[in-house]
Amino acid sequence: MKKLNLFIFFSLIVISLLFPFLCMSQPKYGGTLTVGIESDIKQIDPHKGVTAIEGRIYTLFADNLVVSSKNNEPYPGLAASWDVSKDAKEWTFRLRKGVKFHNGREMTAEDIKFNMDRAFDPKTASPIRSRFIIVESVKVIDRYTVKFILKKPAGGFLALFFGGAAQQTPIIARECVKEDGTVTHPIGTGPFEFVEWKPNDHIRLKKSIHYWGKGLPYLDELILKPVPEETVRLTALRTGDLDVAFPLPIDEVAKLMKKPQKDFYFLQDATAGVYFIHFNVSKPPFNDVRVRQAIAYGINKKEMAEGIFQGYGEVLNQGFPKRSPWYCDVPSIVRDVGKAKALLKEAGYPDGLEVALTTSNTYPYQLIMGEIAQEQLKEIGMKIKLDLNDWPTTIKKMIGGDFHFGIIHWGPIVADPDLLYTTAFTPKNAYSWLTGNAYNNPPLTELLEQASATLDFNKRKELYTKAVKIIIDDAPWIFTVEGPGPFGARSHVKGLESHPNGLFAYGGGGFQYTWLDK
After folding, report:
1. Exposure string for 192-209, b = 16+ CB within 10 A, e = fewer
2. Quick one: residue 507, left, alpha or beta (phi over 0 = left, psi -120 to 50 = alpha)?
3. Domain regions of the chain by residue span
4. Could you report how far apart the first and last alpha carbons of the chain are, in Å?
5. Which of 72, 102, 10 lies closest to 325, judged by CA?
């Protein structure tokens, strides 16, 4: 109820603040928009991105074949339309004609095939490859038609192209891929053209004169600056050093929203993300399910929700909140200190154990959750050392398996459960590194494979419900909480809307529609 009230509160304030601007003049062209973001990217190759901030940034300069709508549903991108065969194994996409890369060359079906072949090549080491493992081949039918032939039916296939902030499938020009396979200056077809990336300082983009979106974008230039501290981003927004700050601390925003602000306003994504604990099951102590279960019984999720989101978060036991059609009604593990201690004793740790918890201080909510977990797990005899790093370092350590267990958050709401459960909990998949590339539960894998291949929604839901029960019991991850994620903009920033996954460009919205009234 508190979360609903906060949402209504935000909505009423936003409406009252924006109403005077709705009647103003038509959008203006020109100007530079400076955006403060939570972290720098790890690298600039769009086929190798693994983090949400990378995926969001890639949408600005590289389009997908199919993109996300404002409601995170399939929306025409480079493909103007598509057809699917009766057995859901052949998906045919008809491309927009006349779309040009930023170097002026027309994009064709051959470019789609080149990109998919590159992403599927093991040498590229792209997370896209494991997402599209069901693709048997990609065939060029003619200059503007491409067909994906699948190994098995896939009712949620379209969601593979855009389903989460980190799960984008950008199309780039083959000319920007060097002979050694690297990309240092990506060339896409998006609303903005990549200019430069100075690590830990800024990413600069400029308006694309070749963009296929008629009359877009309005801005001349876009500068993205990594500002890791939420409070620093908020201060920079208030002083005018930033035009947009993304995201912002919910407690401070709630205080400011108590009265109308003249110089800036706030919006919010559907959620700040789904937070969870994940385990490296490739080595002790978390290769033992009893130790993982002890953590599950030892934490208090309600206390976490209060501490992180000031009471406005929702406790979770799975990857989808109750408002999602993919929410599965399954029992939760309730905190039981005695049960947790008994499990540790059974696993050979009667006096408890000491272990490191890896997370990032770039995201304050992750840090707060880590501190709360540290205190809670003392009661079951665990001494937790917090291993804190910036976001790129955290990801590097996790991908390299250099962690025992960690806290991370998943971008708000994925479009299809296949993109979450299958990619995380089946062997050698896109996010297997979150469990040390070692988690393998054959009955769970079989259920997820059946659900992925099923077209009927009710049948899929039944299969995913069984899968969620296994995930809760086996605890490769422990889903904890999710909550709202406010961000802000200066009053002269117009046309800015939020997206459920915080995307910077998407079907019908994004920074390409944003303009400056100053």
Report:
1. bbbeebeeeebbbbbbbe
2. beta
3. 31-225+492-516, 271-483
4. 39
5. 72
The reported pTM is 0.74
Residue showing tokens 């590289």 = 62
Let me know how long the chain is: 518
The CATH code that applies to domain 271-483 is: 3.10.105.10
Below-50 pLDDT ranges, the chain: 1-23
Amino acid at 51: T
Taking the CB of residue 518, how many other CB atoms lie within 10 A of it?
10
Structure tokens at 478: 């422990």
Lookup result for tokens 């509160």? 9
Contact call for residues 495 and 45 (beta carbons, < 8 A): no
Across the chain, mean pLDDT equals 91
- Beta-strand relationship, 145-150 and 192-198: unpaired
Q: Which two tokens stand for residue 297?
A: 């019984």
Residue with tokens 């992180």: 308
46 contacts: CB under 8 Å, gap ≥ 6 = 58, 62, 168, 170, 172, 183, 186, 188
Cβ proximity of 173 and 190 under 8 Å: no
Q: In this structure, are residues 367 and 360 in contact, taking their beta carbons and an 8 Å threshold?
A: yes
The CATH number of the structural domain formed by 31-225+492-516 is 3.40.190.10
Decide the pairing of beta strands 66-68 and 493-494.
unpaired
| Residue 288 Cα to chain centre, angstroms | 29
Q: How far is CA 196 from the centre of its chain?
A: 23
Q: CB within 8 A of 82, min separation 6: which ones? A: 66, 91, 92, 93, 94, 158
Does residue 181 come out as left (phi exceeding 0), alpha (psi in the -120 to 50 range) or beta? left
Rounded Cα distance between 472 and 373, Å, is 18
Predicted confidence (pLDDT) per residue in 303-332, tens digit: 999 888 876 788 999 998 887 888 999 999
- List alpha helices for 47-199, DSSP H: 52-61, 109-120, 127-131
pLDDT tens-digit profile of 380-437?
999 999 999 998 899 999 999 999 999 998 866 677 888 889 889 999 888 899 999 9
What angle do the packed helices 289-298 and 364-378 form, to 10 degrees? 100
State how far the Cα of 511 lies from the Cα of 63, in Å rounded to an integer. 14
3-state secondary structure of 476: coil
* Token digits of residue 396: 């590097």
- Separation of alpha carbons 23 and 9, rounded Å: 23
Cα separation, 357 vs 369, in Å, equals: 11
Which residues are CB-neighbours of 175 under 8 A, at least 6 positions away? 101, 103, 105, 187
